[in-house]
Amino acid sequence: MSEALPRVALIGLGLIASSMAHALRAKGLVRDITGYARSAETRAVALELFCDRVTESAAEAVKEADLIVLAVPVGVMGEITAEIAPHLKPGAIVTDVGSVKGAVIEAVSPHIPQGVHFIPGHPLAGTEYSGPRSGFATLFENRWWLLTPLEGQDPAALARLRALLEAIGANVDEMEAKRHDLVLAVVSHTPHLIAYTMVGVADHLRRVTHEEVIKYSASGFRDFTRIAASDPTMWRDVFLTNKDAVLDILGRFTEELFMLQRQIRMGEGEQLHAYFSRTRAIRRGII
Ligand code: NAD
Questions:
Q1: Where are the domains of the chain?
Q2: What is the C-alpha to C-alpha distance for residues 27 and 81, in angstroms, rounded to an integer?
Q3: Residue 147: CB within 6 Å of ligand 1?
């Protein structure tokens, strides 16, 4: 057991929080996990599956906690931190798992009391499922967990959090928040937007039926759009809070798409072949 952070409070009990709880328990890393969720049903599931205690109030959940994990949609991180702030124990570590870092830091930091350490984070691990039943202990194994420490961050607190995350199998890297948001716009946020759009396109077509799309979806559509089954609240918040980076990458995406559209219309096979050869080589480099 890690004596460094024995009592954990999970604020929000969905995929990421439940996976953390399963992983921490499976490795015997903490003594006690308290969970907070708004709905009684979620709390009951969490108590049955992975929490030692659940509370109806976020403030109540954090009172004794050494580590507080904010695992709610990015858009509510600020208000929930304001609620828990007066109840945080001196020396406690608050981290979050939000998919966007700049906006979360802006929303959360002002509420963090003196003597409490806020260390923003983001596990690059997930599935298209959500809710307290969707978590599993191995979600973070061999996956990146990015921390975006703030200026003047206490190195000892950072080391304690890092050790805990590594103990549940994550590869921890540190990154500046703005850089994180740009990188994630490329590797995650914009691809999700495009996947959602492709499903929307198929939905709006009248000449191809829903039945045909479902029946024949193995030919690209199924793989390509798997991530479009992800939680809509989470993704709305991601796009609204990482607006600049997503719009930047989306602009570049549409430019390339227009270029390909033109090459297809003009029958420019050589250019298309060269483009696909280059992108195939890049894609094959990703395991
Ligand atoms: P989830 O939908 O499975 O769980 C979210 C939890 O937050 C639920 O318990 C929900 O009831 C609660 N919640 C929602 N709105 C709330 C509010 N207004 N007040 C209090 N609680 C509220 O989502 P998740 O996938 O676990 O995502 C949680 C966080 O993790 C998000 O910030 C998301 O950006 C981030 N994240 C998700 C993934 C992923 O692939 N799903 C990956 C990395 C990080």
A1: 7-175, 179-284
A2: 28
A3: no
Looking at residue 215, its pLDDT comes to 87
pLDDT at position 205 is 87
Ligand 1 centroid–CA 104 distance in Å is 13
Instruction: Select from 188, 102, 108 the least CA-distant residue to 144.
Output: 188
**Is the distance from the beta carbon of residue 135 to the nearest atom of ligand 1 less than 6 Å?**
no
Which residues on adjacent β-strands are paired with residue 93?
67, 117
- Render the burial of 243-260: b for 16+ CB within 10 Å, e for the rest: eebbeebbeeeeeeeeee
Evaluate: CB of 128 within 6 angstroms of ligand 1.
Answer: no
Burial of 207 (0-12, 13-18, 19+ CB in 10 A): exposed
Bridge partner list, 70: 11, 96
Render pLDDT for 99-133 as a digit per residue (tens, 0 to 9).
999 999 999 999 999 999 999 999 999 998 999 99
- What SS3 state is found at 226? helix
**Is 72's C-beta closer than 6 angstroms to any atom of ligand 1?**
yes
Q: Say yes or no: CB of residue 71 within 6 Å of ligand 1.
A: yes
Q: Which CATH architecture has domain 179-284?
A: Orthogonal Bundle (1.10)
Q: How many whole angstroms from 87 Cα to the centroid of ligand 1?
A: 22
CATH H superfamily, domain 7-175:
NAD(P)-binding Rossmann-like Domain (3.40.50.720)
Determine the distance separating the centroid of ligand 1 and the alpha carbon of 120, expressed in angstroms: 15
Q: Are β-strands 144-147 and 171-174 bridged in parallel, bridged antiparallel, or unpaired?
A: parallel
**CA dist list (Å): 197 to 85, 109, 212:** 39, 34, 18
